Automatic annotation (TrEMBL):
SUPFAM superfamilies: Nucleotide-binding domain. Its EC number is 1.18.1.6. One of its GO terms (biological process) is cholesterol metabolic process. It is an enzyme of class 1 (oxidoreductase). It comes from Triplophysa tibetana. Its cofactor is FAD. Residues 31-187 form the FAD/NAD(P)-binding domain. This is NADPH:adrenodoxin oxidoreductase, mitochondrial. Pathway: Steroid metabolism; cholesterol metabolism.
Amino acid sequence: MDIVGVLVLLLVCVFTAADGWRGLSSASSPRVCVVGGGPAGFYTAQQLLKARQDALVDIYERLPVPFGLVRFGVAPDHPEVKNVINTFTQTAHHERCSFHGNVNVGRDVSVEELRQAYHAVVLSNGAEANRPMGIPGENLSGVFAAKDFVGWYNGIPANKELCPDLSCETAVILGQGNVALDVARILLSPLDMLKATDITQHALNALAGSGVRRVLIVGRRGPLQIACTIKELRELGNLPNTRPELLLGDLEGIEETLKDLPRPRKRLTELLLKAVNGGDNKAEKSWSFRFCRSPVEVLAGADGKRAAGIRLALNKLEGSGENVRAVPTDQLEDVNCGLIISSIGYKSILIDPAVPFDPRRSVVPNDMGRVQDAPGLYCSGWVKRGPTGVIATTMNDSFDTAHVILQDMESGLLDLSIKKPGAQAISGLLQTRGVRTVLFSEWEKINAEEERRGKPHGKPREKLLDVEEMLQIAWSSRIMDILTFLVLLLVCVFTAADGVRTVLFSEWEKINAEEERRGKPHGKPREKLLDVEEMLQIGWS
Ligand code: FAD
Ligand code: NAP
């Protein structure tokens, strides 16, 4: 009996270490999985868990690390925006939620397999590509998509080798949205403003040697259509040692339109007008907006390989207000520059050929989050509505999708009487394919290591850039868990063989209860005991 007890204990221990207790929940619960661990994925999960006490939610994330663009997009000098991570962490710690990192849906497991295993599958995989400019010379060296440039300074593993050459004096950014302004600010900020952020060290080193002194932010439409927001424009205007170089002619006649503009647009336009008149003439760096210009060709330097400039078509505007259209004229303008960053928007990609996809809009075609012609399949976030909107927009949109799923559960459109295996089935599939997942507790190991590495430099973290290294750190914890349990097993076996006292399963349950009690104040499912002596003491108490 004692040996049986020990074996059961071992099985429980290994199971706990490998998959967490959450997988043991009732098989008749609604099981939902979310593809993508960014804001859309976490907000959808949060709402489902809150609204249904029996729902089990699994989040599958391609990378070993969670949070999508909150980690890899939001500018390093906007730490307050990243506070949403605390809410996402609470969701991940929820007893009915599991995070499975390092799972590339579409490659490691198909969406159809997920649909078989879950009552509902939510695609929240964001927008991981960039809109191409579609002009000659786009692939010359010195031309970057903002997505990659941002990924480089924010630590996306795939962008760690980008190494942009920042030796030129003039950089041109195409597009006048908030991403364009983030990039301009990073290029122009004094190093001291970035040093204490989570910007990658390699980006910091490159920026320290940067020769960029002038940044032109080029838009295809006019000053009344810029896509950035007030806070971001104000931040650019307030950069030390940097002056705006706006041309008064570009803003001609604008002042008179102010009174008719909606409030946010009015405020934005007032800031532009203020920038024309402001600025410290002694400043060494400058930024400027160029309006009514579309890129037509990247001009190569003498070697034919590196960008040396950009040719722009001058546009005339047709229509009025926000719906104004840019129509190119035959007038062209060449601008000399050594760095070109195309910031004309992100783009979702098709992750699985079986998923409906609108190639023109690059979104999953859907009706309020219900994917068209695919019962049980839903979408939220940027893959649902396109690559625009701040985190709050994504939150509302994800709550909407969750409400639709809940409605479909209530109405019987989703048949909950069919039992679904959920993560158990998918874990089995992944195992046979040699895919090992990263649990949320294992991400927390990576998190702790990043924070540890950042500390000596006064940074909140130094992001790990290498997926292999992330995995090594994540899984070292699992190996330690299993080792701890093996030690426990050895103690038990030794004890059983020697006629000394054994730990019965009911005694393990006391240890279990104590671990759960200790975890509770920290919002964790358990705080594992690490000391065998202490385990025995509690087991036998
Ligand atoms: P994402 O955040 O992109 O999350 C998608 C997730 O899905 C990612 O984790 C990705 O790895 C995962 N995934 C992709 N493919 C797969 C797959 N095949 N299998 C499994 N997982 C997959 N908003 C603000 O409010 N404030 C800001 O300061 C701000 N700054 C921004 C800066 C930049 C550069 C950008 C681009 C956006 C910024 N935003 C900001 C907007 C905000 O980031 C978005 O609204 C939000 O991230 C969209 O959430 P999402 O979950 O749809 O996409
Ligand atoms: P965006 O706001 O949509 O801006 C895209 C810019 O590219 C616009 O100026 C657009 O001009 C231009 N553009 C698009 N297609 C073009 C083309 N073919 N040729 C020339 N120009 C073209 O996108 P984004 O800057 O990538 O930002 C994405 C979302 O994330 C936005 O909602 C943004 O607010 C959010 N975000 C927020 C923050 C923040 O809150 N701090 C930071 C970054 C991003 P038109 O207007 O003429 O189309």
